[in-house]
Amino acid sequence: MTNFGQFYSQIATGPLAHWLETLPAQIAQWQRDGQHGQLKHWQNAVSFLPERVPDHIDLVNSVSAGSTTPLSEGQITGLTRLLRQLMPWRKGPYHFYGVHIDTEWRSDWKWDRVAPHISPLADRLVLDVGCGSGYHMWRMVGAGAKLAVGIDPTQLFLCQFEAVRKLLGNDQRAHLLPLGIEQLPALEAFDTVFSMGVLYHRRSPLDHLWQLKNQLVSGGELVLETLVIEGNEHDVLVPGSRYAQMRNVYFIPSALALKNWLEKCGFVDVRIVDHNYTTVEEQRRTDWMETESLADFLDPQNPHLTCEGYPAPLRAVLIARKP
């Protein structure tokens, strides 16, 4: 069972202390009612991972840990077997003691696109909404964040995160909570809020932007990364039942329309800092994610279109400030 007591202790004093009025009850309810059928299996895999104190950790250029004395072939095989019980691994990659977790997404490429445009994270309190297994949180810690808090209701991602934390020597500078953004009160406590790959999954995108704004301190920064389409400030794609085989895609605006949405929600200094088409090198099937991936979701005759005939995935990064 994941223990959130350490996190509660860390936030008991400081700007997040008032979260303790609601958070422990929400977590207790999740532990009582929200358990996935595979959760115990995943938690067992994490519990059997060896307790290691790494001799070197890199969170600046990667998410990796290792020891001066290499693991034996048998130890590497055992570590690999346990980590593969937490498949599919979607966000990464990770490198631990000679084991390379080659995830579906090259999340390091996204980080390299985002990082040059954001305010320095040194000593900041950071929230990562829809954080997946937490890859980007560790990169935020590597960039100097005082504390990175991630929220994602997917329980496999929580177990993957706890596995990574254990292999990093039980680092407490990042924490993942199995919650959705709609479960957070207006904390108004975070210096930087990241929402990457979430907006198009929200039935009400403006409500999502308001929820993000409500987590920021005055003057805090929003980093928003999402699917967009080419077009002017009035263009928005509303896909049918699926987009690139994903069922829950509701609104894909142009970057200019999204800039307008942010301004309508009261953000200022809104900047479009990056456009990038997702390639089959950045999102692909691997030994650690063996089901279909981007190449299977595109039109085989025209890679500029999805298999449903929509524009192929184009992503943008926007930076905005709460006044």
From TrEMBL:
Query: Which Gene3D superfamilies would you find in this protein's record?
Result: Vaccinia Virus protein VP39
GO MF: methyltransferase activity; transferase activity, transferring alkyl or aryl (other than methyl) groups
Q: What general EC class does the enzyme of this chain belong to?
A: transferase
Which positions are annotated as binding carboxy-S-adenosyl-L-methionine? 91, 105, 110, 130, 152-154, 181-182, 196, 200, 315
Which PANTHER family does this chain map to?
Answer: METHYLTRANSFERASE, TRNA U34 CARBOXYMETHYLTRANSFERASE
Q: What does this protein do?
A: Catalyzes carboxymethyl transfer from carboxy-S-adenosyl-L-methionine (Cx-SAM) to 5-hydroxyuridine (ho5U) to form 5-carboxymethoxyuridine (cmo5U) at position 34 in tRNAs.
Mind telling me what this protein is named? tRNA U34 carboxymethyltransferase
Q: Name the gene behind this protein.
A: cmoB
